[in-house]
Amino acid sequence: MPHVALLAVVYFAFVSLGLPDSVLGVAWPSMRALFGQPLQAVGLVTLILTVCSACSSFASAAVQKRWGIGPVVMVSGFLTSLALLGFSLAPSFVWIVVLAVPLGLGAGSVDAGLNHFVAEHYSSRHMNWLHGCWGIGATLGPVIMGSAIASASGWQAGYLAIGLIQLVLASLFLLTLRLWRHQPVRSQHGPEPAAHQGQRKAAPAWAAWLAPSMYLADATIEVGTGLWAASILVDHRRMGTQTAGLWVS
Q: By C-alpha distance, which of 43, 56, 18 is closest to 96?
């Protein structure tokens, strides 16, 4: 049972990771009107988020070796939740830029850490479900933000709601820290039969670059669409913000 509960916590962590990923693009038309910023200013925020996320991802192995995966997930959860709550209270665009730093750092560490954890301790089937949970969060985020903007509450309420959801999930990670002591041991298969070994062909040198290249293309489409689609639909197609948020989802 501890293994099942731990897997559920990991899934919830990836739902929380996906929640804010597509929200900024949906909120930006309203945010830039309030802050008096040009359309392209959101690119600066995205750049900071990406760089900080990459830095925390690169440092993830060393950080987890020192502190353990459970505490890292918990701290990152609180870091992202506080950053999102800060977004809802930001009085100017400068604060959005500043808060992008902890938001990116928290997201990158969880992403790299949990991917490695599931790959090491669970099957590829569980890895697929893990990223499916990210999709749940990434789908819910724009819906929540679009609904908040369509109401009288505005984008601040959207970030407040998502930040509070993240805070609840971070508290869940805190309460379940003991589960990480019962990490499952993935079953090891025996050696491959000699007959099968002879049939295998050596992979070409370029094959090692195929997966990261495909991921680069995928992430480019994903981030680009999430960031700019709502602005195009709202500013140029005169679509309602809530409807635009649904299309982004």
A: 43
Residue by residue, what is the 3-state secondary structure of 111-178?
HHHHHHHHHHHCCHHHHHHHHHHHHHHHHHHHHHHHHHHHCCCCHHHHHHHHHHHHHHHHHHHHHCHH
How many CB atoms neighbour CB 195 within 10 A? 7
Q: What pLDDT was estimated at residue 217?
A: 92
- Residue 139 burial (CB < 10 Å; 0-12/13-18/19+)? middle
Q: Please give the model's pTM, rounded to 2 decimal places.
A: 0.84
pLDDT digits (tens, 9 = 90+) for 181-238: 776 666 454 445 555 555 667 778 788 888 889 988 988 888 888 888 888 888 887 8
Tell me the DSSP string of 227-249. HHHHHIIIIIS---HHHHHHHH-
The tens digit of pLDDT for each residue in 76-129 reads: 889 999 999 999 999 999 999 999 999 999 888 888 888 888 888 888 888 899
CB 172, CB 6: distance < 8 Å: no
Side chain identity at residue 227, one-letter code = L
| Residues 61-70: contacts with CB under 8 Å, at least 24 apart | 61/112, 61/116, 63/109, 64/113, 64/116, 68/180, 69/113, 69/114, 69/117, 69/180, 70/173, 70/177, 70/179, 70/180
User: Which amino acid belongs to residue 47?
Assistant: L
* CA–CA distance, 85 with 99 (Å, rounded to integer): 10
